[in-house]
Amino acid sequence: MMFAFSMFATNSPAPTDTNFIDPAITDDNPVTKQLTDVLKKNGIKTEGMLDEHFMFASVIWSAVAGGYLLYARRQREITPFIGGIAMMAVSFLIVSWFWMSLVCIALIFGIYFQMKRGD
Predict the structure, then answer these.
(1) Which pLDDT does position 94 carry in this prediction?
(2) Label partner for 7 (CA 20 to 30 A): which of 56, 72, 74, 101?
């Protein structure tokens, strides 16, 4: 309760930059600067890695994948197990929330039609 009150009682404005990686800290650390330079050189964007849309989509699709894994274990089915592993891999490997969601939705439909075909 006191934390919530202290959050609303301050007069300081909220930060407008949503990037959690502070350049003042990373510029002083040569190892971190080297890592970000290598990532940028290879075409990986470091700005959107902690984007709220990506984090929300990753949590949602990982939870759905966990549900598929639990279902596969209880029903002794291989199709939802493979689909759950694939969805979990997609939520870890694809860094765009939009493409992650599209691939996971496609996997859901693929698992559904494969299960219907197997009956």
Answers:
(1) 84
(2) 56
Report d(CA 114, CA 70) in Å as an integer.
Answer: 18
76 in the Ramachandran plot: left (φ > 0), alpha (ψ -120 to 50) or beta? left
pLDDT in tens, 71-103: 999 989 899 999 999 999 998 888 788 899 999
How many residues are listed for the chain in this entry? 119
Q: Is the pTM of this model over 0.85?
A: no
C-alpha–C-alpha distance, residues 79 and 100, integer Å: 20
* Alpha-helical regions (H) of 29-78: 30-41, 52-75
In the chain, % helix, strand, coil (3-state, to 5) comes to: 75, 0, 25
Task: Please name the residue that has the structure tokens 């800290």.
Answer: 25
Q: How many CB atoms lie within 10 A of CB 37?
A: 11
Query: Token match 């694939």: residue?
Result: 86
d(CA 47, CA 83): 30
